[in-house]
Every structure is written in structure tokens, then in C-alpha cells.
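so my prof wants the structure for this chain in the C-alpha cells format not the other one, which i didnt know existed until like an hour ago. anyway here's the sequence
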Amino acid sequence: MKPSRHLIIAAFFSFILFSSFTKIVPDQRLIDYLGAEKVANIQESSPDLIAYYNFYLDNAYTLADVPSDKLTDNNFPTLDLPLRNGKVDTKKLNILMLDIQRKYDVSVYYKINGSSQVMIFLSEIEFVKKYNVYRKQIGLAK
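here's what i got, hopefully its the right format
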């Protein structure tokens, strides 16, 4: 019984030690938006914020294909985004650079100029739920 208890204790301390040395690597799009110096300061003072922004960059929105006839009869605001083959080029997209207004309790829709896609920004409530699941998965929350 004692060896297994020691193994569990050793594994626990290994996890704690590893976690304290693991740095969250900032997404390049965050560095492009805030600058390297500011991101380095955030990484030192509040590394959880780096995790938040990294998650936000790829998960605060969804893209949906919509038939063009359905796009003409609505009042969605439009966005000019980088396109590749008529679709949003998500590798070049930096949503931090966009002039958008997210809402607390409803999703916000934008037409994409030159595309049959709509960008749907999650409500703050939806996004926080999604982010909290992610935080648990990576060990930032219980």
C-alpha cells in the first residue's frame, strides 16, 4: 500500500511542478494586436489572460454559409475580411482588429463582403460558458 501512496504523491507534486513552469504561448495575432512588449507584461502578470485571448481569437465566432438570396433581404452589418476561394481565410483573420460590437445576451451577425458567409459572434454569455469548459480542460479551473 505504501508504494502506491508514494507514487500518487510523487505524481501530484510532478504535476504541480510542471504546471508552475508551463507558460501559455501567446497567439501571434495577439502580439500583432497588442505588441510584443505588452503581451510579455501580461504573460508575466496575468498568464490566464493570454489563455483567454488565445481562446477568444478562434472561438468567439462561427462562420456559416448562407444562400445569397437570403443575404440580400436582411439588415446585417457587413465586414471586409480576408478571403480565399470565396470563404473567410481564418489563418489571416484577426478578430481583435475588427470594429465589432458583441452583445451580452444575443449573438451578433455580420455579412462578409464578397462571400456567401455570415460571421456570428457569440453572446458574452455563450462565450464565457464555452471558455469555462476550455479552462477546465487545460487545468486553469476546477
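also thought this was worth mentioning. The CA atoms of residues 13 and 19 lie 10 Å apart.
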